[in-house]
Specification:
By secondary structure, the protein is mostly helical. The chain has two domains: 5-67 and 207-213, no CATH class; 75-172, no CATH class. Helices cover 48% and strands 11% of the residues. The chain has seven helices and ten strands. A hairpin with a 2-residue loop joins strand 3 (49-50) and strand 4. Helix 2 packs antiparallel against helix 3, helix 2 runs parallel beside helix 4 (129-147) and helix 3 runs antiparallel to helix 4. The chain is elongated, with a radius of gyration of 23 Å.
């Protein structure tokens, strides 16, 4: 990570030298780099190389299971998280609708099996109203499966629960509150790190002030 292409090249060379000292080798064909900038053409005139082998420039890539983009957008990551969350939900939906399990146990299944899949890496998310709605829609769908239908007092017919009814029957913090809580906890953890750490520098914006960050 660096505030300019020159800094990244220097850091990459230092990485290659350090790995050679312990008998390891950086594979240039499996190495990628990405430029994050308001200017979409930033860094395009530069060519990154490692031991004379070119490094591919990309607009997004997976890092530790999280999709990173050159626009700092979480839309693709959100799609991926919800897709994995849906797959997890469908794998346990029979348990969530089973009459043999209590509602409290079903909620535990949701919060220990499904929710961690959806919220993996959420500490770095910057939510817009669109993402908030998508998260709430996902959670409400799961909760409807957990609590089942409700008999209408007027008509006597069974109907689906309305979104506002979950506030009274679901005592746990909703999914958006969980995201905000985890972000605050992570920010506090980073703020306590020493100033030389890269993640701390990104948080306070001391070393990566330039328009281009690679």
């Amino acid at each position: 990570m660096g505030g300019s292409v020159h800094t990244v090249k220097k850091n990459a060379e230092a990485l290659v030298d350090a790995t050679k000292e312990i008998g390891l080798e950086v594979n240039a064909h499996k190495t990628q780099y990405m430029t994050v900038s308001r200017d979409q053409n930033a860094g395009r005139i530069h060519c990154m190389k490692m031991d004379n082998s070119p490094i591919k420039r990309v607009e997004e890539f997976k890092y530790l299971g999280t999709t990173l983009t050159n626009q700092n957008s979480i839309q693709e990551e959100m799609k991926s998280r919800l897709k994995l969350g849906n797959a997890c939900y469908y794998s346990v939906q029979n348990l969530l609708s089973s009459s043999l399990l209590s509602k409290s146990l079903k909620i535990k299944i949701y919060r220990t099996i499904i929710l961690p899949v959806v919220l993996y890496g959420c500490e770095t998310w910057s939510l817009t109203l669109r993402e908030v709605r998508r998260l709430r829609m996902f959670e409400n769908r799961v909760l409807r499966r957990v609590f089942g239908p409700k008999r209408d007092k007027v008509t006597g017919e069974w109907r689906k629960l309305h979104n506002d009814e979950f506030r009274n029957i679901y005592s746990q913090p909703n999914i958006v509150r969980v995201v905000k809580s985890r972000r605050m906890r992570w920010m506090g953890h980073v703020a306590c790190l020493r100033e030389g750490r890269g993640v701390h520098s990104v948080l306070v914006g001391k070393e990566f002030i330039g328009e281009t960050q690679t």
